[in-house]
Specification:
With 190 residues, the protein is mainly β.
Amino acid sequence: MTATVALLLLLGVSPPVRPLPVLGTWETPCLPIGERGRHGVITRVTLNNRRLQAVSQVYETRACDVPTFKLHFRGTLLSLQAPSGRWLLRHRVRAITLTPQAQAVVAQYNRTDGPTSGCGMQGWKLGVARSVAGRRCAPIDFAPVGALLYDGAWIDGEGLRFGAFPQIWSNRSAALRPDRPLPQSFRRVR
């Protein structure tokens, strides 16, 4: 124990606690998604001691210029450990909602030409969020509310990469926790 820490403890003052390096707000650049990368997405993730939140803003083009829909995720962070170069996360799904931001998306989601059109629901409205937890919104099968998910996170230089989040929602046991990161990298914004 250093002399400074010992002095602080004697005076009844707690030494400053450094926040875990994985905690904070992280964001991706504009990334191409969809068939042949024709759309764009920017995802912002916030991790704190008890919460994991994310907002993915999807755009009409890969230039991330015209918003089409927004996906919100809220979860409770149950544990966070770093035993071997990666952070082990365990979190519970609290909500996953999708909000159409373009009339063309509303029209597409209200089509009845397949079981995954509109995430299997009708009645979509512009600017109105709906729960998609536990639903298939092709090509993603979202976890249901209450599901326990296991993930890994790696800090490499200035970036944070997850093993599953926000693309894979089937990692519902420690045995299914990813052992390597996805290619997308988040940069710290706070």
